[in-house]
Design a protein that fits this description.
The chain has five helices and seven strands; from the N terminus they run αααβββββββαα. With about 190 residues, it is α+β, with helices and mostly antiparallel strands. The chain has one domain: Alpha-Beta Complex (Peptide Deformylase), CATH 3.90.45. The strands form two sheets. Strands 1-2-3-6-7 form a five-stranded antiparallel β-sheet. The radius of gyration is 17 Å and the shape is globular. About 30% of the residues are buried. The structure holds nickel (II) ion.
């Protein structure tokens, strides 16, 4: 093993920074509002949004706050029990909160990337997921205006992960058999309070 690959591996295994107790408490409170594995809403297809009203915009704002408190990079409506086709995400702290309504993937690259993913609905589960490296998506913003997004890297990955949620697809559905088996064990143990 070369020095370089060793460094990369260490990078991937690096623990997230320690959270102070207040942040941890806020994270736990937020996570209580997020539907967890086993909830049928996570396996259901969400329906298109037709009304772009204050109700939708308030929900988007609420989900944005919940996502921040939970320290997630994305949150789909299914995850808060709403079977509607929208999600929020923010891949970098410098970016504004993005809200995507009625997304459709128009194009995805043949080139794929494999990377570890977690999900707020699957606590403590991390699996490798292979996805197209670049995508082009058409959608609507929170006012119903049409938008186009071209994304690669982490943004492309997050958009595809959240779009999967709207179709009732979870990361374990895209994981290898071995990793899925291990993830199921972790989830069962959590359920039993180990
Ligand atoms: Ni997720």
């Amino acid at each position: 093993m070369t020095d370089e690959s060793q460094t990369e591996e260490e990078e991937l295994r690096r623990e997230p920074p320690e959270l102070d107790p207040e942040m941890l408490a806020r994270r736990e409170a937020a996570l209580r509002h997020v539907r967890k594995f086993g909830d049928p809403v996570l396996k259901s297809r969400a329906v298109e949004v037709e009304q772009f009203d204050d109700g939708l915009r308030n929900e988007i704002a609420r989900m944005g706050l919940l996502m921040e408190d939970a320290i997630g990079v994305g949150l789909a409506a299914n995850q808060v029990g709403l079977l509607r086709r929208f999600f929020v995400y923010r891949v970098s702290e410098d970016d504004p909160l993005q809200a995507i309504v009625n997304p459709v993937i128009d194009w995805s690259s043949e080139e794929e990337e494999t990377f570890e993913e977690g999900c707020l609905s699957l606590p403590q589960v991390v699996v490798e997921v292979t996805r197209p490296a670049q995508i082009r998506v058409s959608a609507q913003d929170r006012f119903g205006e049409p938008i186009e997004i071209e994304a690669d890297g982490l943004e492309a990955r997050v958009i595809q992960h959240e779009l999967d949620h709207l179709d009732g697809v979870l990361i374990i559905d895209r994981a290898s058999r071995g990793q899925r088996r291990e993830a199921m064990r972790t989830l069962r143990e959590l359920e039993q309070g180990f």
